[in-house]
Design a protein that fits this description.
This is PRC-barrel domain protein. InterPro entries: PRC-brl_dom, PRC_barrel-like_sf. There is one protein chain. 10% of the residues lie in helices and 39% in strands. It is mainly β. The protein has a single domain (3-92), classed as PRC-barrel domain (SH3 type barrels), CATH 2.30.30. The model has no long low-confidence stretch (mean pLDDT 89).
Amino acid sequence: MDHSRHIPLDRQELNEAILTDAPVYGADDRKIGTISHVHGVGAVTDVVIDVGGFLGIGSKPVLLSVDQLNLMRDEDGNVHGVTSWTKEQLKELPEHRH
């Protein structure tokens, strides 16, 4: 996927309503997880990404700062994130419990 034409999200768009269920792609441009929920808004925002599993079953929730993601909209307006993390690296992070 060519992300060069995708529009970065503004800080005010970093909220639960916009980010929940957004797919996250790794360095190799493969889907590595989905944002399940958001902590905070704007500049101080963390996201919980469900990694692995199928349809949310068997997935591991991990916490990342939005600063570790490039969050953007594609040509159709769909929100997604891109990170340099791999699926394997995310799986090694501690499980997020809330």
